[in-house]
Specification:
The structure is a single chain. By secondary structure, this protein is of the alpha+beta class. The protein is about 15% helix and about 40% strand. The protein is built from 10 helices and 76 strands. The strands form 19 sheets. The protein has a 6-stranded antiparallel β-sheet, with no helix packed on it. Strands 63-69-68-65-66 form a 5-stranded mixed β-sheet, with no helix packed on it. It has a 5-stranded mixed β-sheet with strand order 71-73-74-76-75, with helices on one face. It starts with 6 loop residues before the first helix and ends with a strand.
């Protein structure tokens, strides 16, 4: 969680005070302050611990929190704590974080999980019915517990031994336990000193006794610093000696946990923190803040545990200081800053005043500007070194004052001779006498700023001392050329010649917030959203953006010092090395997190950087050579599989196929920079994916072997060594090789069975087709025989005989010829399954002409064929129509005395079917069937129907047959034949 919300409170209320008697004005350090607003579970904090990984743990009255520099991860009874009120924290050699609770129950955090008496049977043995006040692990791995009662316990991981003192005056209550250089175990209480000998504690006479178990500090060398009634002492084994006398009023004000080393004592109590060196010099920190504890982390940061959250004092080389209203400034808000030749800092204040800070004495001189309507805030300062004059500007005015002897009477104010209001955006001076103004109406040049500090808006000479359009910035370079930016872009006024560079470079049309000249004469321009533009010899030679390392593309101010270009934005400070046009970027991580959103102006001195902020003048020491920042440590803090927390103590994990939803929580430990970038991958040969998120959720992973790697970096650091998590996601049984092999075998068998079945069916079908074709041939032979109806043949022969007997040889020859042609046609047709319409028409005409010759006028017939049909290409089954026509003549027309008519119509019904209709006006099929006696049926028609059924079984499209009576008489036979 970001710790930025409360930064503005640091400067005014909860600042770190470092004072010395010789100074009239003290300096205040920036002090990050973390409370519930930043993520702590409670502001009432009891204890702070840094574990071996670097996390800061905080015990509060509402649970425990783990802090990595950006986020607080909180734990409570809901997560497994036996009590939310945790008084102390300890880490053992295994890396377990022990929680010493107010209710006396012990628990610990290990590999992402909290173990308590309910889920760890060994912890049930650690029951003292008392509050554990001290915790120590000796060289043998045994853990010693001191309690607020007359009980000391020792636990070897399996069994617990308890000890109590038999002497009422010399008891174990609130004992501090430690091991000396010789491996001896000591118990040190406020009333006595005990040595563990032969499995028991022996009373040792000692005149140096601690004020409480809190006022002892064990060093890595197994020495003990402790406070007694006289001050600080050091104990080595049985020997104790005083180190430093401490004022009784400090010792009597409820001292908390102390920190001591070879140089100084850090004492916490109800009034704050006191830093006392061994020469007796005292500095107070966090005045009037109730502090419970002081610790130093492995990066030399000091942490203060209080009843109002926790504070961090950065390491000395990363410490930022502030001078604000408490130190003599007229207001907290500093809008501008510069330095004169005498080494004094000039500050333009948000209250419209000028403040002069003597850096040696830290004294502040205030110069009040009376006209607050015009000079409500001083936003820009410039020193005229030649004339020893300071120029200052507000939004509605510009003035000057003697820098050599800054007195109220030396104030001068720029006048518009017509008393018109003008809005100042920016101003610049050259080395001679000119002053250029960037106004809302344009750029104005005043040629003699020393003797004629005025201008007239009515007497402009455009393109000489005035350039119209709203302007933003003006700047005189070392060659006295005037550069300015307006709504059109960047221009240069060079000895009477105006160069409009924005016409040739689109980037120069953007708004420019500041212009500075580098050591080699190159111009650097701060843009409003497009980073920094480097301009040389009329061309843009470099464009620096966030992709190159800037912390923001909106740059507000620039400052050039030696071979470095400094830039400030709403997100902090960036320093760019310009040596040999390399433009390497370095950011001050430890400062950016505190200065963001508050920066107004800057001035860079030889070894100190000064910043005008809304909370005062901030400064810190800087080294001109930028050292690469060490990469932050990265850890996988927890892994959830289907919402269940995994025990991270295992080297690798094997997950079941349905455990595909995995969540990784990871964090980098960095107390200087909260802008951490992460990258991750799931395979060693995969590409890295970058993210700012500290949590990665993976769902529906495919089975396989994975190695989750995550790495981190700050803005100035390389990528860290990755943290890794190995796991295997098992396959479903249907994804395994043996399942695929089984499927292959089964599939092969099924394919074989199907192939055999298809082959068998194909053979059966071929045999069936053969039988059908044989049957069709047989039926065709029978149809041929049926067509040669004996009555028909007998009648034809009688007709021929009649013509011969009557000497009508021509008629006999005609009938005989037709009959012969019909027989020959029958013989031709019987060899074909399909014939075309031309052949069918010829055959039907032969047959009908013979019937006509026999019946004479009693039979009338016609054959009508659609002209659109191609008779030679259109095929129909052979011997299909004749039986129906014969039936129409014999059973439809002949029973009528007057005879009748047969009409045959052939046309195309659609793209798929040929339509054939046989229509007669005979007695009608229904009437004919009703007059029949017995079960006589036309053999030709029955054979034809059977042939149709057989053909329909062979062909894809069936032949359709419809027979109906037309009213009271007449019959219609419709045959739909698929087009071939």
């Amino acid at each position: 969680m970001r710790a930025r919300a409360c930064l503005r409170l640091f400067f005014a209320v909860l600042a770190l005070l470092l004072f010395a008697n010789a100074r009239a004005v003290a300096q205040t350090a920036y002090l990050p302050h973390y409370t519930t607003k930043n993520g702590l579970p409670s502001n009432n904090c009891y204890y702070t611990l840094q574990d071996r990984k670097g996390y800061i743990w905080i015990a509060t009255d509402a649970g425990v929190s783990r802090f990595d520099g950006a986020m607080f991860e909180n734990f409570s009874v809901d997560d497994g704590l036996p009590d939310n009120q945790v008084l102390q924290l300890r880490e053992d050699k295994k890396g377990r974080i022990w929680f010493l609770s107010l209710n006396g129950q012990l628990s610990y955090f290990y590999n992402g999980k909290i173990y308590n008496p309910d889920n760890d049977k060994e912890l049930k043995k650690l029951n003292f019915n008392a509050v554990v006040v001290s915790f120590f692990e000796d060289s043998k791995g045994r853990i010693w517990f001191g309690t607020n009662k007359n009980i000391i316990g020792v636990w070897d991981g399996e069994s617990l031994l308890k000890y109590s003192s038999p002497t009422m005056e010399k008891q174990f209550a609130n004992a501090f336990i430690y091991e000396d250089l010789h491996g001896n175990i000591w118990a040190y209480s406020t009333t006595a000193s005990f040595l563990y000998i032969r499995n028991n504690f022996v009373l040792i006479e000692d005149d140096f006794l601690p004020l409480s178990y809190k006022t002892l500090a064990l060093t890595k060398d197994k020495l003990v610093y402790f406070l007694n009634k006289d001050g600080l002492n050091i104990k080595s084994g049985a020997m104790s000696r005083p180190v430093l006398r401490v004022a009784p009023e400090l010792l009597g004000n409820s001292p908390g946990y102390i920190y001591a080393n070879d140089d100084e004592l850090w004492l916490s109590n109800n009034s704050g923190v006191y830093v006392i060196d061994y020469d007796g010099n005292t500095k107070q920190l966090l005045k009037n803040v109730d502090v419970n504890q002081v610790i130093r982390d492995n990066s030399q940061n000091m942490w203060f545990t209080t009843k109002n959250g926790i504070y961090r004092l950065p390491a000395a080389k990363e410490r930022l200081y502030i001078i604000n209203k408490d130190q003599g400034l007229s207001t907290e808000v500093v809008k501008s800053v510069t330095k004169d030749e005498k080494g004094k800092l000039w500050l333009g204040m948000g209250s419209g005043d000028l403040n002069i800070l003597n850096l040696k004495s830290k004294s502040v001189q205030q110069i009040n500007i009376a006209d607050k309507r015009k000079y409500n805030t001083i936003k820009q300062l410039l020193i005229d070194k030649k004339n020893h004059t300071l120029y200052f500007a507000s939004d509605y005015g510009l003035g000057s004052i003697s820098a050599a002897s800054p007195q109220q009477k030396s104030l001068r104010f720029l006048k518009e001779t017509n008393n018109s209001v003008f809005v100042v955006k920016n101003f610049s001076i050259d080395t001679s006498s000119k002053l250029a103004l960037a106004l809302s109406s344009g750029v104005v040049i005043i040629n003699d700023r020393t003797n004629k500090f005025e201008f007239s808006s009515l007497n402009y000479k455009e393109q000489q001392d005035y350039f119209k359009d709203r302007s933003y910035r003006v700047f005189y370079d070392s060659r006295q050329n005037l550069w300015f930016s307006n709504i059109s872009g960047l221009s240069e006024f060079n000895h009477g010649v105006l160069n409009k560079y924005y016409e040739h470079a689109p980037l120069l049309t953007k708004r420019i917030n500041d212009i500075k000249e580098l050591a080699n004469g190159t111009l650097a321009m701060a843009t409003d959203g497009y980073g920094i533009v480097i301009f040389q010899n009329g061309k843009v030679i470099r464009h620096i953006t966030q992709k190159d390392g800037l912390n923001n593309n909106i740059i507000n101010r620039l400052f050039v010092k030696d071979n470095y270009l400094w830039a400030i934005s709403n997100t902090g400070i960036t320093r760019i090395s310009t040596a040999q046009n390399s433009f390497s970027i370095n950011s001050f991580d430890y400062a950016n997190d505190l200065l963001s959103d508050d920066l107004n102006d800057l001035y860079i001195d030889t070894d100190t950087a000064y910043f005008a902020t809304n909370n005062g003048l901030v400064y810190f020491a800087h080294g001109q050579r930028a050292a690469q920042t060490k990469a932050p440590k990265i850890y996988i803090s927890s892994v959830l599989n289907n919402r269940e927390v995994l025990d991270l103590s295992s080297a690798s994990f094997v997950l079941k196929p349905d455990e595909r939803n995995i969540t990784f929580n990871y964090s980098a430990i960095d107390f200087k920079n909260r802008k951490i970038l992460y990258r991750y991958r799931l395979k060693p040969d995969a590409n890295w994916s970058e993210t700012k998120n500290r949590r990665l959720e993976l769902s529906s992973l495919e089975p396989g072997t994975y190695c989750f790697e995550v790495s981190a970096k700050s803005q100035d650091s390389p990528w860290s060594e990755p943290a890794k998590f190995n796991f295997v996601l098992e396959k479903h049984f249907w994804q395994t090789w043996w399942f695929f092999a089984l499927l292959l075998v089964i599939g092969g068998y099924i394919l074989y069975a199907i192939t055999v079945s298809i082959t068998k069916r194909q053979k059966n079908k071929e045999q069936e087709q053969l039988l059908l074709k044989n049957k069709i041939l047989m039926l065709e032979q029978q149809a041929l025989q049926a067509m040669m109806n004996p009555h028909f043949v007998f009648n034809v022969m009688n007709s021929i005989q009649h013509y011969i007997n009557t000497k009508n040889t021509s008629s006999a020859n005609k009938v005989l010829t037709g009959f012969a042609r019909l027989i020959r046609k029958n013989l031709e047709i019987c060899t074909k399954s399909y014939i075309n319409l031309e052949e069918e028409t010829e055959y039907l005409n032969l047959y009908l002409s013979l019937e006509k010759n026999r019946f004479g006028d009693k039979l009338i017939y016609s054959i009508q064929i659609d002209q659109q049909l191609d008779k030679e290409e259109t095929l129909i089954p052979s011997m299909l129509l004749q039986p129906y026509i014969e039936n129409a003549i014999w059973h439809g027309i002949m029973p009528k005395e007057e005879g009748g008519e047969v009409n045959i119509q052939i046309n195309q019904q659609d793209d798929d079917y040929l339509r054939i209709q046989i229509i007669d006006n005979g007695v009608g099929i229904n009437n004919s069937l009703g007059q029949k006696k017995g079960n006589h049926q036309s053999k030709g028609m029955s054979l034809t129907k059977e042939r149709i059924n057989l053909l329909n079984r062979i062909e894809a499209k069936p032949i359709q047959l419809y027979i109906e009576q037309l009213g009271k008489s007449g019959t219609s036979i419709t045959i739909l034949v698929p087009l071939q």
